[in-house]
């Protein structure tokens, strides 16, 4: 592959396989307008996507560290079974809220909320934690998801800055600041091993050597990179800046990997879990994965977790259910399908309630682990039957908020959900005033 050479003549195209080289190290480049012999200024400016501030002020937090766990669903939840008729704290349990009655002081329900401009049905999974319409419609680059935004600025103190998990059957809703989807870990056995089982010493030494070798790539090619930046147009410079920032971030993570490769993993008095092989047991798999997530939080192995439950058509082995979940979600108001769907969704929420309860039983510094962990349950679909992305189901548990019960917004003219994301970021000490360009915080939900 050709190495970069400065001082191209005007109109000369930069070879598409150009690499930055120094001291035997080669760094491949992303596609640039200059590779077609065009100035990137002529090609047009890149889309300016409004994000939360790149370098927010980080406020010091007292007490135990703050954590965030998102449980995300592909196929929505039936609003008529979820939301109580009453607003505020004195709600009477709906069908789905029965398993959560003992946790009402740790729970806020938001109705009538959605991401502005997101109208892409199932594909809006990509927008679920980013709030970016481009994520779902495929016409633009996605942006960073809430979990990764927290992990980017606050996740460096733990062995795993974040965990991205899945019950299988779908993509991940987690995206880097460059818009790349983060693949999800689906195996609970492998997750447990990564968290708590020590590697063979030879394997650990190999990981350490690889991390140390890869850390200095940008330092080695820096002079070549600077020369190239001076030779291209402003749009290409932006692309290069974003790309080089991504490489720098990777090097920081590799440096952390080197440090953690030398450190012993925490020990837990729990037998390694057995993988659930039956794909129909997606609710049991969710519960098993959640039990390992609890251990990860308890040992401070990570503070930011997303567990996505994709829209498979598996048939949950529950009494009264004989049809696949995806088919049930497209119920067309058929009463038999609605009843079966309610059984499946009720079991998912009961599993989520069990996770909240398990955190409440762990004590640290005189408080519960639930008090320091914001736990979100949501979906990209409000009505899966007609692929409607409005009226997203949103349940928020724990986190040390002054919980407000049922916060009801207009179901015809939804309130913007990114305001809640800003509130969550503020709770974790990131002093931002907007997320994905949507200013303000969630009204009615105060920080304790």
Automatic annotation (TrEMBL):
The identity of this protein, by name, is DUF1552 domain-containing protein
Q: Which InterPro entries match?
A: DUF1552, TAT_signal
Record-linked Pfam families: HXXSHH (PF07586)
Q: Which organism is it from?
A: Alienimonas chondri
